From TrEMBL:
<keyword id="KW-0560">Oxidoreductase</keyword>
<dbReference type="InterPro" id="IPR026021">
    <property type="entry name" value="YdjA-like"/>
</dbReference>
<dbReference type="InterPro" id="IPR029479">
    <property type="entry name" value="Nitroreductase"/>
</dbReference>
<dbReference type="GO" id="GO:0016491">
    <property type="term" value="F:oxidoreductase activity"/>
</dbReference>
<keyword id="KW-0521">NADP</keyword>
<keyword id="KW-0520">NAD</keyword>
<feature type="binding site">
    <location>
        <position position="35"/>
    </location>
    <ligand>
        <name>FMN</name>
    </ligand>
</feature>
<keyword id="KW-0288">FMN</keyword>
<dbReference type="Pfam" id="PF00881">
    <property type="entry name" value="Nitroreductase"/>
</dbReference>
<feature type="binding site" description="in other chain">
    <location>
        <begin position="10"/>
        <end position="12"/>
    </location>
    <ligand>
        <name>FMN</name>
    </ligand>
</feature>
<dbReference type="InterPro" id="IPR000415">
    <property type="entry name" value="Nitroreductase-like"/>
</dbReference>
<feature type="binding site">
    <location>
        <position position="39"/>
    </location>
    <ligand>
        <name>FMN</name>
    </ligand>
</feature>
<protein>
    <recommendedName>
        <fullName>Putative NAD(P)H nitroreductase</fullName>
        <ecNumber>1.-.-.-</ecNumber>
    </recommendedName>
</protein>
<keyword id="KW-0285">Flavoprotein</keyword>
<comment type="similarity">
    <text>Belongs to the nitroreductase family.</text>
</comment>
<feature type="binding site" description="in other chain">
    <location>
        <begin position="134"/>
        <end position="136"/>
    </location>
    <ligand>
        <name>FMN</name>
    </ligand>
</feature>
<dbReference type="InterPro" id="IPR052530">
    <property type="entry name" value="NAD(P)H_nitroreductase"/>
</dbReference>
Length: 186
């Protein structure tokens, strides 16, 4: 697949199954992520790769987040939270590791750089025939999850990227009209 086709045709896949990406595929994925644009070479990126029991540990954090939000939450909701990471054989948390108070590189730029890294992961996965889906949801912003993942005060969870083997067909790609989005100053 050539680069322009990849950029035009990348698509999310929510239905994912095993096996997870292999070591070679993961290396290509991380190399792509580490090419994200990066003002002043701060490298504001941290990735946590969850698989196997790691997915269950992540699910446990999600359940703890539910409990913090509502100590009267029932078992059904807690179990639903626990199961969320098990929708894929692998999840990569993309974290913006923010260096505060860098002249000319405010936090927003560092978070955007981590967002670019997340997009690169999606693209590298798609290019290799893997399925991937960027999810954040409320857990990305939850204090229990943030603490459990070891975030510093200025860090942000930018994405939980669910990765695996395609478990279904890609949906048709929405065709947007370029003129609806682009203004010309000539
Ligand atoms: C920052 C961010 C967070 C997202 N979080 C979720 C989410 O929690 N759940 C979800 O179903 N989709 C989420 N999405 C949207 C999907 O990843 C996906 O982009 C969307 O379903 C459109 O599919 P496409 O990527 O094939 O165009 C998120 C996208 C972004 C950019």
């Amino acid at each position: 697949m050539d680069a322009i086709s990849l950029l035009h045709e990348r698509s999310s896949m929510g239905k994912l199954m095993g096996p997870p990406p292999n070591a070679e595929q993961l290396e290509a994925i991380y190399r792509a992520a580490l090419r994200a644009p990066d003002h002043k070479e701060l490298r504001p990126w941290r990735f946590i790769e969850f698989s196997g029991e790691g997915l269950e540990r992540l699910g446990e954090l999600f359940a703890e987040a539910e409990y913090r939000e509502d100590p009267h939450v029932g078992d059904t909701a807690l179990n639903a939270a626990r199961k969320k990471p098990l929708r894929a054989p692998m999840v990569i948390a993309v974290i913006a590791k923010v260096t505060p108070e860098v002249p000319k590189v405010p936090k927003v730029e560092q978070v955007i750089s981590a967002g670019c890294a997340a997009h690169a992961i999606l693209l590298a996965a798609h290019a290799q025939g893997l399925g991937a889906m960027w999810r954040s949801g409320k857990y990305a912003f939850d204090p229990v999850v943030r603490k459990g993942l070891g975030l510093n005060e200025d860090d942000e969870v930018v994405a939980f990227i669910y990765l695996g083997t395609l478990g279904g067909r890609h949906k048709p790609i929405a065709q947007h009209d370029i003129d609806d989005f682009v203004e010309h100053w000539r």
